[in-house]
Structure formats: C-alpha cells, structure tokens
Amino acid sequence: MSLAELSLDAASGIATITINRPEVMNALNVPLAQALRDVALEIRDDARVRCVVLRGNGRAFIAGGDLASFAKDFEVADQVADDLLNALHVLVETLRNIDAPVIASVHGAVAGAGLSLMTACDLVIAAQGTRFMIAYDRIGASPDCGGTYFLPRLLGRNKAAQLMFLSETLDAEAALAAGLIYKVVAADALAASTAELATKLANGPTQAYGNYKRLVEKTYDRSLSEQLEAERDAFSANTRTADFREGVSAFLAKRPAQFKGRSQ
User: Fold this and answer.
1) pLDDT on residue 1
2) Strand 102-106 vs strand 109-111: parallel, antiparallel, or unpaired?
3) How many Å apart are CA 135 and CA 164, to the nearest integer?
4) pTM for the whole thing?
5) Positive or negative CA dihedral for 160, 166, 167, 168?
6) pLDDT at residue 263, rounded to an integer
C-alpha cells in the first residue's frame, strides 16, 4: 500500500483516499503530502467521481505534521515547510473546487494540519472517541493548510480563537455541538456509516453540488447583489444539465430521480 492510496468504485462513483502512514499516526511529511497531491490531481478531472472519502489507516486520521522532518536540520526547516505546503495547498484547493462532495471519515487523533485538512472537506463523520485539536502554539507556529480560513467560518471567530490560543481539545460530541462535524457514530460503525453517506451523495446531482460549493466559498467576499447574480448564473447553468431535466421530470412524475452526474 502506498502512502496515499486511491480506490475508485466505478459503479458507484465513490473515490476513497486512504492515508497510510500508521506507524506515526499518519503524520504529514513531504512524501505523504506529495502523494496526496498526486491523488487529488488524479481525481480532479475524472467525470466518474461523484463522491470522495478521505480517511486514515491505523489508529488516527492525521495527527498533524511530522515534526521529525523539521528537526533533522532547523537551518532548512523553512524549505521543508514550503515543500510540504506546496503539495498540501493543491490538495486543499482541489477538495474545495471539485464538484463531488468530500467526506472526511475520522477517528483517533485529528490534530494540527490534520484538523485543517478535515475542515476543507464538505462533511465530517467521526467515530466516538475522536479528539480534535489545532495545537500549533505548542510548537511555536501558526496554523496552515487553511485552518485560519475554515475554522472561523465553521465555528465563529471567538471559538476558533479558543482552539488556536488555548490548545483546547474537543471530543467528538463537543465537535458536533460546535458545528465542526456532521455526525458521530460508534467506532465499529464508522466504515458502514461513511459508506452509506457516500452512496447517498454519489447518487445526487454532482454538478449542482459543485455549484453549491462554489457559491458558498465566495459568499463572504461578495455583496448581496453580487451573490444574487452568482446564484442566478449557477441556477441557469444547472438548467442546462441532464440532471436538472431528470430532477424536474421525476418531481412532476412523483418518482425518485436517477441522477447521472458529470458522466452523462
């Protein structure tokens, strides 16, 4: 198994990215970051992909960055950081820009850059016992991988500040109550619950999901008038898809819609 393995079920359209560095709780180093980047680029233009699942192998989702890679030579730590983040930025932007919804299926530790990457996903399903922390202050650093972008939007400025300044740790139930994640399930039900959610999303109108993601991404940067026009453009684009025709026809016929996504 490679550092970041991609499996695509062509029948369902579900692409699963499994992070595989369990001996260090999937801590992110440059080779792993580059493997994740390559996987993201592989799925980016694949019309068969209608849902993406990001998961970690072993005892954790991602326990942050691999600090040992910085400690080898502090004189070049800035270059290591650049190499690491150059790859991870591609991953984050791809997860946000692709039409397919992205599910983070998390367990164990979700820390540092792992938390930032999780927040770049559209929905998070977590096993009971999962622990969430940002904890950059413990190593004298500021958050990266979009943490300062996504956390204030998800939690609000004050709650995000508590996590960043005070190294607060949230358990799964607290993360759910704060709005950081979508659902908490028993640890032994995580895989099945993730598969059920992924199947539901993969059967949805993929292009419409993509328009929704892009509208939400820009909403804080636009005036109301600008957002209304963006919504008009997106809705008009939706009307030109086969999924829209199918959805409207199914609604009027009082039958379930059979969406095909981008592969139609």
Assistant:
1) 63
2) unpaired
3) 7
4) 0.94
5) negative
6) 57
CB of 63 closer than 8 Å to CB of 107: no
- Would strands 4-9 and 14-19 be described as parallel, antiparallel, or unpaired? antiparallel
What would the pLDDT profile of 36-57 be if each residue is shown by its tens digit? 999 999 999 899 999 999 999 9
Phi and psi angles of residue 103, each rounded to the nearest 5 degrees, phi first: -105, 130
> What tokens were used for 83?
């190499």
DSSP per residue, 13-71: TEEEEEE--GGGTT-B-HHHHHHHHHHHHHHHT-TT--EEEEEESSS-SB--B-HHHHH
User: How far apart are the C-alpha atoms of 54 and 145, rounded to whole Å?
Assistant: 15
Residue type, 213: K
C-alpha distances out from residue 98 to 86, 131, 257, Å:
19, 28, 22
| Per-residue pLDDT tens digits for 164-174 | 999 899 999 99
- Contacts with 263 (C-beta within 8 Å, 6 or more apart), sequence order: 13, 47, 48, 50
Q: Does residue 111 sit in helix, strand or coil? A: strand
Give me the sheet containing 14-19, strands edge to edge: 4-9, 14-19, 51-56, 102-106, 123-127, 183-185
**What domains can be seen in the chain, in order of their start residue?**
4-202 (3.90.226.10), 206-263 (1.10.12.10)
Quote the radius of gyration of the chain (alpha carbons, Å).
Answer: 19
* Residues forming a β-bridge with 9: 14
Distance CA 10, CA 31 (A): 27
